[in-house]
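**User:** You know discrete backbone vocabularies at least as well as I do. Would you mind producing a protein record, from residues through to fold? Write it directly below this note and I will take it from there.

**Assistant:**
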Amino acid sequence: MTGALPANPFPGMNPYLERSGLWQDVHTSIIVGLRNFLVPRLQPDYGVQILERVYIAAEPDTGGQPRFRIPDAMVLTEGTVTPRREIAVAEPKPGAAAVAVRMPEAELLRQRYLQVLRADNMEVIAVIEVLSPSNKSGSDRRDYLTKRTEIERSTAHLVEIDLLRAGPPMPVIGDAPPGCYRIIVANGRLRPHADLYAFGLRAAIPEFTLPLAKGAAGVSVNLNAVLSHVYSHGSYNMFINYRQDPEPPLSEDDRAWLDELLREQGLRTSQGE
């Protein structure tokens, strides 16, 4: 016997989904959910692709060495293999003792994003990015900002969705309204101007309009509905302990509000329990 799907207990973004061990799956689910939302609203004039950038990262205990981006596929052509050469190996000196070490392990980081393309000529109309923690800090932040600049120099629109409280927000010029989460919609025909939606835990994720080709009306995107669907169908309630506070820590006001909300829904019996 199947039961009802769990509902997101928050009016908008669920801060427990930001946890490092959960976010990668949440991120992928949001990307897929956005495509499923957009495709029926854009056909037959536009298509939506899920693409990914792949990075090689050193393991965390190597001091945060830079990550290197590699193509999604590497092809070796016949005749390009360098012939093997004999290498002289020095004999160990008498008395030298070997020390046990461990070789650094490479980690593949995959960052998925969406492209909206015209069906008639495959022109990239818009790029939709859902930020990950690595986008907001360290060398990956620099890599992402470089990619962001490349998009801004093209004719494509950019939608940048930041549902993570950790890490500094992406730079904008002007007075940004308060809010721990952000959506930026940069219409390629209106650059350098863009629309910034800032919101917090207590509000639903605002709807935004995805710009399309010149002369075409944009499409309204209900990210809040997408996230609610993702939460219900991802069974994320199984991996969340609502008796604990989310990470990173909330402000005292938000923490008190969250505690009351969870107790009202029976997810906590008393504060902190």
